[in-house]
Amino acid sequence: MKSSGVAHMLRLLEAEDPKNPLTDQELAELLETSRSKVTSLRKDAGIENSRERREAILLEDIQNILEADSKISMTQLTKELVRNGYRITLNSTINFMEQKSLLASTKKATVKVVKKDAFSGIIGSQRSLSMQVEQAKAAAMYPPIGLHTLIVGETGVGKSILAEAMYKFMVNNKDSETIPFVELNCADYAENPQLLTAQLFGYKKGAFTGAESNREGLIDQANQGILFLDEVHRMPPDGQEMLFQLIDKGVYRRLGDRDLQKAQVMIIAATTEDIETSLLNTFRRRIPMVITVPPLSVRGIDEKYDIIATFFRQESIRVKREIVIKSEAIRSLLLLNYPGNIGELRSKIQVACAKGYLACMHQSDSGSQIIIDNETLVLSALPENQELSRELKHFSTKDLIVYPTDKVTVPTQPINDPYEFSEGLYRIIDTEYVKLQGNYLTEKEIDSTIWKLIEKKISRYITTIQNGRQVQHLKDNIQTIVEQDLVQMAEEMLRTAEKELGELDQTLLFCLATHFNASIRRIRNGEGIMNPNLANVKKHYPKQFKIANQMAELAPKYIGMPLPDEEIGFIAMYLSATTDAKVKIGKNIGTIVVTHGKVAAEMVAVANELMGNSHLTALCISLDESPRFIYSRLLEMVKRNNQGRGVLVLVDMGSPETFGDQIAEELGINVRTVTRVDTLMVLDAIRKTQLIEMNLDEVADSLVEQKKSVVLGKRNHSPKPEAFICFCLTGQGCARYLFEHLEEVIVEVSAKVKFVFLSLLNEQTMEEQIKETAQQYDIIGIAGSFKVQTSDIPIIMMNDIQKQSAVHRFVAQVKERQKQLKNESPQLFQPSLVFLQEPITTKKEAIQFLCGKLQAVDFVKETFIQTVKEREAMVPTILDTGVAIPHGYFSEVNQPQIAVLIPQAPIPWGSGLEAKVVLMLAFTEKTSHLFGNIYNVVADQSLVDQLTASKERNQVIECLND
Fold it and tell me: In whole angstroms, how large is the CA radius of gyration of the chain?
């Protein structure tokens, strides 16, 4: 790391939160380097690690807490520290207390038991689960890093809890807090093996489109610790095979990298399925330890009772009230069957406590008891009368009373536990009760109103379980593409709306934040916001428009300016789309992203992370995949994704562009295809398909129009002087600063470059000014103080100007841009391969003629013609302008080239179209992007007419190069 990097690290450390100092891993991510380099650099500089740096302040705060309550438990102490702003776990607190000899004033003996045995909080650890616990301990302590383990059991039996207990047992007994525990839910990547590879193993810069820097994978993060693979049966066979080398030899290879990386990782995998049929035998044999967790139904009545009592104690502590569980309720809970096992039992108890808490609200005594009986349990069907065993009678004869002062030793619930309700459930009851009391309602009416609200919340929790959507994950990820201020504004707007509309789907946060990210940029750039539906919104959704106005009042606080009515109309439309009963699950516009390579999976992964399980799916096409197979795959995907409103297909280029109409005709489904897809288009599409007001054609047309608006004008063939643009709000302040910092390096690239200064205060938008400048100059690069869409022109932002690595990358991009402008890219046309007025009358003749010419000069292999015929047999590759563009596989091309045929008379090519011009495309993978330049010409009817009128070969080449 260079001296500037050292200085950057020191600045980061000076600005860090003293309660939560930056770890070496966090520093490595911020500095875009490896954790090992940061550790070495930190030690060389004599800087303590993150735990040592916060030791003094943590010690002081703990001593203050102990002075106030010397008998506080470790759990309560940890919660108090968290409330004070620390990110700290129970084990970390215990270890710190022991190191500082602070346990003498607390219940040291109890704490030692917890530390000694991390499994003691699991009910049944010394009874029905004793064998499983012994297996888990043996696996966790097996040298050097543990024994790979497979945990098998039904949903909700506690597989994740057992895995976490193994981790804590390892931490306690190896006396180290630095052992990582990294979790991956394999279900998230069941359909995306390429994305799974990138997540697990990481990737090298340039491994795929968008891989702009090296990235460590989960295996690297889990090095010297545990990698927990939940729902491992959902991992595709390819993914299972990827782990063989890691398991066998402790090495792996990052995506796009030839070098092997080393890692010592203990793999703990969990599954609900039969391991003999759901996993590869070769994978299964590599996992020596198999632990089977029994379902709740086969565990003893005594354990079931202890589990029930523990959950009620947890709720008692949460609501700070005594809870009386009637014997009849205990009997029912013991007799009930729980397909969801412990998780389902816990959720039933939490719902019962919420209802009992609501009943307490009518009593003046704030400390009144919560009563749980069969009515409170909200059972769909009470257990039928049956003979009770002596053991069951023993546990259900008396009422059970639990107190908020009870000490509960239970394992920490996994963060992503879908069955765990939040304390917000009780806060909602408190808030709504106070609100409704002032409306002169009867107790019965208040109860009914609040309970409907609670049922709605519970229903949302069930949906969360079914869909696997994690709201916090949504918030964490959205901040990677949207400014933090806009996310916070959207969050506060949602809270404002919920006061009037009740709880809203949190995916509305994504819709609003990404919408603001685009629209506010337009407002700041002086561009108008047009909402042609504004009058209808005001007329048909007056309530939503009123609430949207209240939400818009927050805008000046976050962005320093008010929102126009048109923008308020869009907010109302999103509210309507979320709350309108007409919008139901399964009624979306199906959206499929189709690209060559892995780009589609990456785009969809971003959208699905943000939206949960959305209606967006990916189709990744292999470079050598036959058109017939591509067509059949897309056909099946359209069938699956049609939900009644049609299917939108977003493609990059090639044969899939023409498949949409054929599939629509074959299936009788409305299908629209939009080309030249990118991530921005995908995000825009998924947002617009949420709006009930927009049909398929309106969404597709808006995407096409949006794409047109960001494409700069074509260059004239004649050389133009080179220019470099610097812009800011005024064209003087930041723009001049950028010029001063970049002038020297840009002049080295282009000695005669002209620096052009642009201002946002101009009547034109910045994109329009850049487009106008491009008509006069060849723009080799842009530097600015805010983001604009620049097509393929390199741009560097103000906040990157001090980063040497960013400037170096930018200068390299400018040089590459300059080469492209000077036509240093491959010469795709040669006069000897342009054929005018040839007497060729059939498609077969044309293909054989042009392939033969390319093969004669060794541009393509002998087998190239077969791949061309295969593609053409599937679908005719001809545009509406009368230009046929047959092409073969990249692997059959020796050197990129395009052969041109202009026949004496148009050739029938299929689909009712005739070819006036035939371009035989022989591209390699590295040059396939140049097709976009050719497409700009052949898709323009006036340019095609000019092409067919050419009398000389050089005229044809000049026209195509335009």
Answer: 33
CA dihedral 42, 43, 47, 49 (to 10 degrees): 80
List, as one string, the DSSP characters of 599-653. Answer: HHHHHHHHHHHHHSS-SEEEEEEPTT--HHHHHHHHHHHHHHH--SS-EEEEE-S
Q: Which pLDDT score, from 0 to 100, does residue 781 have?
A: 93
Residue partners of 46: CB distance under 8 A and separation at least 6: none
Q: Please, are residues 501 and 495 in contact by the beta-carbon 8 Å criterion?
A: no
Q: Which residue has the higher pLDDT, 324 or 194?
A: 324
**689 CB-near residues (< 8 Å, 6+ apart):** 588, 589, 591, 615, 648, 699
Here the tokens at position 549 are 């106005």
Rounded-to-integer distance, Cα 247 and Cα 305, Å: 41
Helix residue spans in 778-904 (DSSP H): 804-821, 843-856, 864-874
The helix (H) or strand (E) run that includes residue 594 is: strand 590-596
Is it the case that residue 464 has pLDDT exceeding 70? no
Query: How long, in residues, is the chain?
Result: 962
End-to-end CA distance of the chain: 45
Q: 595 - beta bridge partners? A: 620
The helix, strand and coil proportions of the chain, stated in percent and rounded to the nearest 5, come to: 50, 15, 35
Contact 688, 694 (CB under 8 A): yes
Count Cα neighbours of 72 within 13 Å in the Cβ-side half-sphere.
21
Q: Which of 169, 73, 62, 72 lies closest to 115, judged by CA?
A: 169
CB atoms under 10 Å from CB of 487, counted, come to 22
d(CA 881, CA 913): 9
pLDDT band at 714 (very low <50, low <70, confident <90, very high): very low
pLDDT at 107 over 60: no
Residue showing tokens 């050598």: 624
CA distances from 869 to 516, 608, 844, 889 (A): 48, 38, 9, 11
**Strands 917-922 and 897-903, sheet pairing:** antiparallel
Q: How far apart are CA 353 and CA 345, in angstroms?
A: 13
Averaged pLDDT of the chain? 77
Per-residue DSSP letter, 255 = B
Is residue 409 predicted with pLDDT exceeding 50? no
The model carries a pTM of: 0.41
- Contact in structure between 921 and 910 (CB atoms under 8 Å): no
For residue 771, give the amino acid letter. Answer: K
* 518: nearest Cα among 702, 738, 762: 702
Q: d(Cα 722, Cα 752) in Å, to the nearest integer? A: 7
Is the pLDDT at 420 greater than 70? The verdict is no
Residue type, 298: V
941 CB-near residues (< 8 Å, 6+ apart): 881
* Dist CA 627 CA 892 (whole Å): 16
Residues 6+ apart with CB under 8 A from 857: 832, 833
Structure tokens at 364: 């003046």
Per-residue confidence (pLDDT) for residue 470, from 0 to 100: 44
What is the DSSP-derived secondary structure letter of residue 793?
S
CA dihedral 94, 95, 101, 103 (to 10 degrees): 10
pLDDT-based confidence at residue 506 (cuts at 50, 70, 90): low
Residue 441 is classified by DSSP as -
> What confidence score (pLDDT) does residue 628 get?
76
